[in-house]
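Researcher: Watch the backbone:
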Amino acid sequence: MNNNNTGDDSATSKRLFEHLFAQREENFEHASFDREIAFYESICTGDIEKVKLLATPLCSGGYGNLSKDPLRNLKYHFVVSVAMITRFCISSGMTPEEAYNLSDVYIMKADTCTTEEEVHDMHDQMIISFTKRMRNVRNTRVYSKQVIKAIDYISEHLHDKIKMQDVVDYLNLSLPYFSRLFKSELGVTFSEYVTIKKVEVAADMIRYSGSSILEISNILNFSTQSYFIKVFKKYTGTTPNEYKKKYNFFGNNLLEAMQNKNSSSS
């Protein structure tokens, strides 16, 4: 056996022990693995609301140190982040060519940043860019252009009171035609879809944001807290408070559940 390799292994083991010991002394903990996976999955599903909820700033709590220089440390973590996101997106349907090219573009942009604030801003832009592209990847597989635009409109206005008339005006379509088209492609009515999406965001907020039930109801523009509780229970089978206490699952998609239910009963 090569004595030099043995010496290198010994030095690495010693350095690893010292690093772990220092982390224990500082009560350092890496970020939650489940939360991290949920973050990557939300990018792959094109769920911008959930991405914003789960995203954490580079080098916040749970990030290790890759360099003693703060700016270089941020850039190293940026590269790790974009590499992980790239691979998750490829596994979820984005073409390798598009994913790697997008990754290269953002890494080069981050490399030109001269301040930590610029790196943070670039990281936020990169995350949203991948998320929007993944939303397009998923939607273009099964929906018409009009429905894709409607879905995008709804996703960007979940904190508002969304009316079908606003969407048909935006799309320049007749209300009866759009209503039939939407139901035929998604398997649920427009109002059901909006409510389901609001409930999905509410479930994520209950789990991750720390906001109260009343705050979540107001943020998502439900007419009353009691109505919010009623529809939340309708689509999840539990009240918001029960959900907060008992449930711990990721990637729950209420729309898919409703579509599966409707297809099995038809």
